[in-house]
Amino acid sequence: VSRTHRAQVSPGLALLVWLTAHCSCPQAQGFSQEGLDASRADLWASANASLLHSFWCQPASQLPRDQLSALIRAMATRRVLLRAWQLSCLANLAALHGLQDDFELHPPDLLLFYNLTQVREADCRAFTHRAAQGDTELLANLPDQRAALQRVALACLGGPRLRLSASDLLLLGVLVCDMDASSIVAADPRVLQNLQRCRRLTAPQQAALNTLLASGETTLGPPGSWNLEGLQALGPLATYISSSLWMQVQQAVGLDFFGSTVATYRAGRLSQQDARRFVTGFLKAKAESVSSRPKRATGRPCLRGDITAATLRDDLFLVRYDCVQLESCLGSRVLEANLDPLLQHPLPAECQRVVKAKLARVYPRGVPEEQLPLIASLVYLYSRSEIGQWNVTSRDTVVALLASDVALENQTEAVLQKYLDHNGTLTGALLVAIGGSRLCWMSARQIQAIRPSEFRLAGALDISSCPQSRKDVLYAKAREAFGSTRTTAAYYRFMRPYLGLPLAPKLASAGPSGPPPTAPSLPSQSLSVGNVTTLLGQNVGDLQKARSHPTISSWLRSLNRSALGELGLDSDPAGLSGPGRTAPPPLVSRGRLPAGTDGCSLHVLPTGSPPAHLGYLPLSVALPSGLLWLLYWGTPGLSQDCSWDTRTMASEDGAAPAPRAGKRGRVAGVHHVRRSRGPQGWSPPTSSSQDTELE
């Protein structure tokens, strides 16, 4: 923030810029201060593909129009997958430079984040068709933008339709995944092709799918005429078929499909959730079809014959041996020698409990460590006392038990405690391997026992789903780990995921005596429109994309129509996104940003952040803090630090390692920052030998 700009803003608001705007020095990897030479832009993009993945808002904002255009086109040509915060910022820059009209040469994912008021009516169908090739899950935290996109799509069709035709469906593509159940039922049967692109179906959509399949109007025909090829062509949609429909399918066809589905799951090409949903529905149909048969004698004799190793290799094993027969026909020696192939089947929960009970008889003193990695799918069934009987000495054992999402809170703490009892510490590599969400389920004592050096090696873990009490503990641990960093910018880079987490309740209780030592002074007045536009710069469009977020919505409701117009927003949310609407005048002239912003961007709160957290803060803090985290959790950044002096506050992202495999839109990088408070406010820290290790 320049000296001139600082004079216009209170010290607290200036600090707010420091805490929320992820700016950097203008020299980033692949970008010089002069920007890319236009004639070399395409060549640069081709030779530096990895830098396209590390797109960062601030250096890109320095590019002139033709160079930015070349950058966006290169991303489309090379099919670079960007994260939500990157796409949102890039879309804002494209709108600023008037590049949206070139949408046919831009990545489909980018179109999802465009200012939809700037879509010309003549381009509506072409725009919708290309946007529908994108991944709408990137808009998971932006329901307003997702709903606006659907309104644009329907407007292209001339308004909502009673029945979506085949040509309508071709235009809508993946956008059908946001349609309600009635629209799916009434649509042309070729809607199945659209639904195959959906990541998941809601319960009403699942019911609509089964209604459509039962009608016999799809290419599969009525259920009695279904064949193996037709069912396999459904892909994951077949896992949603209800038990009532499976009862109508020819037995031979159903069994063939069951075997092929289990084989696909065992080969790792079908998720556990999809496989178990299918198996549960299919076996329920089978059980109901024989429920009227005469009951056999009491007791639980083995009717199918003893289970052998060969039996367990059969993909129809679960059809031939229900959970009752599994208990009766599975001997201890076979179980002990064939635990792995048994648990490779998508066992229903009842069958899992049978296996657990048998293991307790085989291993009365606890499952031995060499077998523990094999029972990861069962770990949620074990109590703390039962886990206390295990011997957990290997990092690989911990990862096998906790890397999946099966283990719950009690199991996580118990497994880690057994490991700590033997090894004494949790390494940074182990923390990365099991994921940041596991920190949420560790006890405060276990978190405090992590060595600062190992916490630094773990870097920025995703703790967005943690309860506030655990976030407070993690914030304290982060301060301990990164507190001796040489520069304030470097400290912020590492510390950013943990910043502000414990500040809200402490600020609320600070009272007249002032803020606690870990909390900066913050302004109590509400942010003006001018404050917000200055803070957000070209990213003011993010307000529109997230306007239903409680904090943002509350602030927007306090504004009159004129103020909303200044922000580029309409007072009527339903009317914001029709094609051909005249967009309000841009807040920033093309190619220039407000003084003091330097292209800083802000994004919003991640899923899992407790609503009460923001409620403690004055709106002047809550609004920008909320915008920071919804799209932005962590960011890959630059290789050099920005300087700190009395005139400039610059937050900067350090070069982050490649992200771990996981959900798109999140980055596992290494970030840290040091803050020290002197009499005149916040000042840079002193140098430290730790900085060599961290840098």
From TrEMBL:
Signal peptide: 1-30
Compositionally biased residues, Basic residues: 661-677
Any coiled-coil regions, as ranges: none
Principal location listed in the UniProt entry: membrane
Keywords of the record: Cell adhesion, Glycoprotein, Membrane, Signal
One Gene Ontology cellular component annotation held by this UniProt entry: membrane
Annotated region described as Disordered, given as residue ranges: 650-695
UniProt KW Signal keyword: yes
GO biological-process terms attached to the record: cell-matrix adhesion
UniProt key word ATP-binding: no
Subcellular compartments: Membrane
InterPro entries named in the record: Mesothelin (IPR010335), Stereocilin-rel (IPR026664)
The family this protein is said to belong to: Belongs to the mesothelin family.
Name of this chain's protein: Mesothelin like
Gene name as annotated: MSLNL
